[in-house]
Amino acid sequence: MELKIANSWKNILHNEFEKSYFKDLTNFVKEEYGKHQCFPDEKDIFGAFDFCSVAALKVVIIGQDPYHDENQANGLCFSVKEGIKHPPSLKNIFKEIAIDLDQEISHNGNLERWASQGVLLLNATLTVRAHEAGSHQNKGWEKFTDAVITKISNEKENVVFLLWGKFAEGKIKLIDTSKHCILTAPHPSPLGAWRGWFGSKHFSKTNVFLKKIGAESISW
Fold it and tell me: How far apart are CA 124 and CA 143, in angstroms?
């Protein structure tokens, strides 16, 4: 097993791959995938980066942990493979899009279509053991994905960061708020959706900002 990331990201993150924590993380992930069923598939661990290059990046959405049941996780936060039943948070995301943009609720839970338009769907932890939520937390992934957010903040301008829930909002400290657009809302899970997720209008607000800076809007 080899952890491989798209070349555009390798170019700006190469220092991270040489650090001792990442080497320890790689060994841990290899051992876990060798001994246990883990998600996503090995080829999809860096899926968020495969579909969204550094140059194309416009929007960052931060999740926490991959889905841990069969055929769900595909390397993109909140996303599931096509044809798979939508988890509750994804259902609420699609409901808010439908309300916000006055369009039909999507039946396709695979968000690769967003990623290919420049949306980085980044989980803080990129792997998980099957049916054991949070089982790969605090093994080094968070350090790596924090470095990703910091690099984006430093290297890019006018990126829209969509931070949903307290965990994601905690990443504000890594972002230069003077040169990026930060939108916060409660998490779209059933627990937080009725406390301000519905009506947050993050999808239309993102497109208004992108239009203002002369960038193409996202087809949500």
Answer: 9
Q: Residue 119's beta-bridge partner residues?
A: 59
CA dihedral 73, 76, 77, 78 (to 10 degrees): -70
The side-by-side arrangement of strands in the sheet containing 160-164 is: 119-123, 59-63, 160-164, 181-185
Convert the pLDDT of each residue in 30-54 to its tens digit. Answer: 999 999 999 999 999 999 999 999 9
CB 125 within 8 A of CB 66: yes
Q: Identify whether 41 is a catalytic site residue.
A: no
pLDDT digits (tens, 9 = 90+) for 62-85: 999 999 999 899 999 999 999 999
| Catalytic residue chosen out of the listed positions 24, 65, 69, 146 | 65
| pTM given for the model | 0.96
- How far is it, in rounded angstroms, from Cα 31 to Cα 20? 17
* AA letter at 99: I
